[in-house]
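sorry for the late reply, my laptop died twice this morning and i had to redo everyting from scratch. anyway the thing you sent over, i finally got around to it. pasting the sequence first so we're on the same page, its 94 residues, then the predicted structure underneath. double check i copied it right bc i was rushing
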Amino acid sequence: MICETVKAGTDCAFMTKGGCGYNGGSCHAVVEQCEGCQRIIDVATGRYCASYPNPGNKWRAGSCNFATHVKSGATTQQAKINPLKASKRSNKKK
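ok and here's the structure:
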């Protein structure tokens, strides 16, 4: 539904016929960790996240999973190679 509270005119998943269904009755503004994210929308009442109504909660336990400006924590590491299998493979090639 279209938001009628803080993000007036934008589509909001938490908006119901009875008003905003989010805990507290309205969305919260973005926090400083959100700066640089592509999901931030600017409206007359401030800057809000288009994906989540309370960005502060997302950043409390670590990085936000909706953040577009944060690289994934998974690093690409080489797979561990069993030395016994590696020696057998090299012997087969000869």
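Helices lie at 55-60, 83-93.
thats about all i looked at so far, will dig more tmrw
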